[in-house]
Structures are given as C-alpha cells and as structure tokens.
Design brief:
The structure holds two protein chains of two kinds. Chain A has helices spanning 10-19, 26-43, 78-83; strands spanning 88-89, 92-93. Chain A is mainly alpha-helical. Chain A has a domain at 1-51: Histone, subunit A (Orthogonal Bundle). By secondary structure, chain B is of the alpha/beta class. Chain B has two domains: 6-303 and 388-482, Amidase signature (AS) enzymes (Alpha-Beta Complex), CATH 3.90.1300; 304-387, no CATH class. Chain B has helices at residues 12-21, 26-44, 52-67, 110-117, 160-167, 184-190, 224-234, 277-292, 308-323, 341-352, 355-368, 374-394, 420-424, 431-436, 465-482; strands at residues 47-50, 79-83, 121-126, 173-178, 193-196, 216-221, 264-268, 296-300, 400-404, 440-447, 453-459. Classes of the chains: A mainly alpha, B alpha/beta.
C-alpha cells in the first residue's frame, strides 16, 4: 500500500490534472508539484497512526438511503433552467460533438 | 482605515420588534443600511451584488402588511446579506468564480425562502473565497474583501464578505457557510458572533456544494440573541436535503437567560499549540468568566484533535473534486468553445477556476485516485471516526468545550496568500467540529494585538446547540457588564 509520505512527481500531477479535466502550463505543473508535495509532507504525520480496526466515517448523520415518496411534485421550470445554460436548442442542452472531429 | 457604521448599534431583534409594532418601518431600516453601504462599501468590498431596489420594494411590502394588521414574521424588516454560494432565483449567484459567469439559478435555496417567509429583506450577495475555499477572502475572482476594523487586514474566510457586511453595519445579520471554519474564523476576525450549527440542522438545498459531508449554513450577527433568532428561522427538517435531520427548528432564545450555573465547561488539555499570546489570554479570561458565572471548568482530552487538519485537507478536497465536476460548461454559466466535449470541458475549467480551486481539485483527485485511495482518503475517514469518538468521550465529562476560534487576530492582506499551508493552519481549531458534525460558534471576547477583535470558540455535541448558546450568552453578558481587559 502507498504511504502518505511517498513523493508526488510531476508525472503524477500531470495525470491528476488530466483526470480533473484541467490543463496546466509547464510553470503551473512545477508549482503545483512543489505545493502538493509540501502538503503531503505535512500530512505524512498520519502514516504513524495505528488505524487498524477503526471504522471509516463518511458523514456525521446516521441517515441511510433517504428517499422521498414516489409521487409527482413541483419541478424546476425547463425554460428557466435552459436559459441559464451556455447553449440550448430544442429544449435540450447543446454540446459540441462527443467524439473529436479529428478522429 | 475603519468602517464601523452606526447601524452596528441596532439589533435584528430590536428592528423586527419595532417594525412589527409599527414604531418604525422596514423601509427606514433598509434605507439606513443602504446608506452605510453607500458610505463604506467602496473600501470594504463585502458584496458581489447589492440589491438596493429589490430590498426597498420588499421593505415596502412588509410595511404595507403591517399597516393592514398582518404580522410579517419574526425577522420583519431585518436586513440580511447572503454569501454568494446560496442560490437566489433569477439573481446571479457566482461563488466568486469566473466559471459561473452570469448564471441565474432557477430556484431559491431553502434558507432564502425561510428568511423571506420570516420577513427578512435580502440586501445583497456577499464575496467569498472562490467556491468557499480559503481563509481570507483573497481568493475571489472579484478581488478581496477588507476587514471593516482595519482595511489593511483580511476579514477571514471563506465567508469574509458576510462577516464584513455585519461588522461594517451593511446588514443586521448575514448567512455564511462553514466547511472547516468558514463562518467562525471570519466572525472572530471581524468581531461578530458566527455559528456553525449541528450538521443537518439547516438545509443545504441550494447551497452550492463544496464538501457535502462538512458544509453547514449558519448566521453572523452582532449579538448572540440575533444569531439565535436567525438560526431558529432557518433550521428544521427539509425533505429536499437528504442529509437534513428530522428535527423541528432549533429552540434557542428561550434558554439564553438561563445562565451557566452547574454547566461543565471543558478545557482541552492536549489542544494543538499555535494560538498567539493575545488570543490565548482571552480564552483564559473566558474560562474565568464562565467559572465566575457558576460553571465548572473540567479538563478533558481530545487526542485526535491535532490530526483534524490533515484529515480535513484530504476529505474536503476529495469531496470538492467530485462536487465541482459539475462545472463543465454544459449546464451552468460560462463555456469556452472547443471542437469536442472533452476539449470544451478542459478549456472551460482551466479558464474558469482560480488557482486555489484547481489546487484543491487536484489534491482531492489525487487522494481518491487508484493506488492512493486507501493511504489518503481511506485513512482520513478513519481519523475522522477517531475525532468523533474522542469528542463523544469528552462530552461525557463536559457539556461544552472552549477553545480559540482563530489562532491570531486578522492578518494583513497578502500575508499568507503565497503559502497555502500557512493559510490552512488558520483552521486548526475550527476543523474538528466539521469532521464530527457537531455545533460550534465564535463569540466576540475583547481585542488583541493592534486593538483587533478576538473571538473565542464554544463547541457542543450534536443537537446541543441550545446549551452552546447558553454559554455564549453568558460570555456576552460578562463582556458587556465587566468589559474585557485589553
């Protein structure tokens, strides 16, 4: 298993940026790598903790699978929603082609 | 420069009572606050948007209702400023980010509906660190907000605009959101009351999500009573929020006068160091004040408290990286055109998000990525459990805990903006309550270095918000009656 103190590399940061759909310049990549490495160094304190058998906590409430009744209720106004989008057409969000034109 | 207008001497409770009785008008209340905005907003920059015309016409409706013998509600004519990450139907909601552009939400956040139903008047949308990520309100696409007590200083963050709006007298009360201290830290730095209620006590419907398991909306106010008045109006179960707990609205004001006789106030003996001497002095004085009022001071331990910062800066960015995936140029605000969708997502997000938001999205994506999930996110979730367990053990011995809110008084603009980690340390004392889901609040308690405000923090177990308010009211009475030495 990886440990928190493991060093983050520019390649790691570049891969993460792509996963997050962000483009970084070379300068930004260098800065981000330095900053993230400094943070992860600080966070490495938790490597020493014995956490075996501790139940992970995802949120503070004890609510599970909250469902509403399956009945028709008030909905958002479609025209109002589409008016706030960058581009809409025929009652739908308009986007560029899913597949690149250069494929 | 200082910008504390005379409207800061008015309380929301006082305004509501006199508007309901017809002694004053809502229009007059709103106009006084608009005058304060006109006098000082250019220097403070608390707002992204001031809604002067809307506010005056809403106030006129309230006055008309009173004239017809109707009761406009417990917040009649009370001016309120909203952090600009809360949706307002048809009114731009920016999160202080370029990526949302001129986006106008198609619905109101539940808290906005509840405030209006209670007779409050929204005067504007306040500045924040972009998507609520920051501790100084310097990370805004629209420029920083300044502290009304000293405009060379930051107001704290991320709800710095909402804190400054109350501190400067632009609104009687305001709403902020608190994910790791974003209400309590700016409240401390601006000398206002600031409350993060129990997680789930206030609906998050219409609050643009940052860290969904941590985010909670709460009030800023001049007095503990005003904060209670607002929190009573905005709390309660909302079927539109799946994390809203099934509880009636909080009952707070009825307990404020009860005092703290017999209340057990915990001092955390293993609290992480870092508070400056002026802040620590005020915290010590606050313990003395509560003891003098009849409380018992008890020593407790919260061993995992110090690991809160690390757990938080893995969990919150992880949740943020997921929540902010929705800003992709398809449904909300701006788009940078590109030949295909993937390039359009990349171009829109790269252009639209600021540096701190990108930093946290990348940190969160890394913490969740294959091969690192167990080491980062998984371990952070286990530490979160330890913190919640430690608090639960401490609350077996104490009814409330008392700590610093911010480690220091307000710092100068630019002081920490080039060092993300130094900025993160501002939230050392506030973060653990968000991880546990417990209520906590900052109460003004004297001044420190440079004559700047200091806030002390009260913490309580989940759903014991009323007990926390009782202690806060006792501290406020002490400060008013005896003064706090400076």
């Amino acid at each position: 298993m990886s440990s928190v103190s493991q060093r983050i590399t520019p390649d790691d940061v570049s891969k993460v940026a792509t996963l997050a759909r962000l483009t970084l310049t070379n300068d930004e990549l260098a800065t981000a790598t330095t900053e993230l490495a400094a943070m992860l160094d600080h966070f490495a304190e938790i490597d020493a903790l014995d956490l075996d058998g501790v139940e992970p906590m995802s949120n503070p409430t004890h609510l599970v699978n909250v469902m509403r009744d399956d009945v028709v209720g008030a909905m958002l106004d479609r025209d109002e929603v589409l008016a706030a989008a960058p581009l809409a057409e025929d009652d739908r969000f308009r986007v560029p082609p899913i597949l690149g034109l250069d494929d | 420069m200082t910008h504390i207008n005379d409207t800061t001497t008015l309380t929301a409770a006082g305004i509501a009572a006199s508007v309901r009785s017809g002694e004053t008008t809502a229009v007059a209340s709103v106009q006084r606050h608009l005058d304060a905005i006109a006098a000082s907003e250019a220097d403070v920059h608390a707002f992204n948007l001031v809604l002067a015309d809307d506010a005056l016409s809403r106030a006129a409706e309230i006055d008309a209702a009173v004239a017809e013998g109707q009761d406009p509600g417990p917040l009649a004519g009370v001016t309120v400023a909203l952090k600009d990450n809360m949706c307002t139907r048809g009114i731009p909601t920016t999160c202080s980010s370029k990526i949302l552009g001129d986006w106008r939400p198609p619905y109101d956040a539940t808290v906005v509906t509840l405030l209006r139903d209670a007779g409050a008047v929204v005067v504007g949308k306040t500045n924040l660190d972009e998507f609520a990520m920051g501790s100084s309100t310097e990370n805004s696409a629209f420029g920083p907000t300044r502290n009304p007590h000293d405009t060379t200083r930051v107001p704290g963050g991320s709800s710095g605009g909402s804190a400054a709006a109350v501190a400067a007298g632009f609104a009687s009360v305001s709403l902020g959101s608190d994910t790791g201290g974003s209400i309590r830290q700016p409240a401390a730095l601006c000398g206002t009351v600031g409350v993060k209620p129990t997680y789930g006590a206030v609906s998050r419907l219409g609050l643009i999500a940052f860290g969904s398991s941590l985010d909670q909306i709460g009030p800023f106010a001049h007095t503990v009573d005003d904060a209670a008045l607002v929190l009573e109006a905005i709390s309660g179960h909302d079927p539109g929020d799946s994390t809203s707990i099934e509880q009636p609205p909080l009952d707070l004001r009825s307990t404020l006068a009860q005092g703290v006789e017999g209340l057990r106030v915990g001092r955390i003996t293993d609290l992480p160091a870092g508070a400056s001497p002026d802040v620590q002095g005020r915290v010590d004085e606050a313990f003395d004040a509560l003891a003098a009022a009849g409380a018992t001071i008890v020593d407790v331990e919260v061993p995992a408290f110090g690991y809160g910062l690390t757990a938080y800066y893995l969990i919150a960015p992880a949740e943020a990286s997921s929540n902010l995936a929705r800003f992709d140029g398809v449904r909300f605000g701006t788009r940078v055109s590109a030949p295909d969708t993937n390039q359009m997502y990349m171009a829109t997000r790269t252009e639209g998000f600021g540096a701190e938001v990108k930093r946290r999205i990348m940190l969160g994506t890394y913490a969740l990525s294959a091969g690192y999930y167990d080491a980062y996110y998984g371990r952070a979730q286990k530490i979160r459990r330890l913190i919640a367990n430690d608090f639960a053990a401490a609350y077996a011995q104490a009814d409330v805990l008392l700590t610093p809110a911010s480690p220091t008084v307000a710092f100068e603009l630019g002081d920490k903006s080039s060092d993300p980690l130094a900025m993160y340390l501002c939230d050392t004392y506030t973060i653990p309550s968000n991880l546990a889901g417990d209520p906590a609040m900052s109460v003004p308690f004297g001044t420190g270095d440079g004559g700047l405000p200091i806030g002390v923090q009260l913490l309580a177990p989940a759903l014991a918000d009323a007990t926390m308010f009782r202690a806060a009211a006792a501290l406020e009475r002490h400060a008013a009656q005896n003064g706090v030495s400076s």
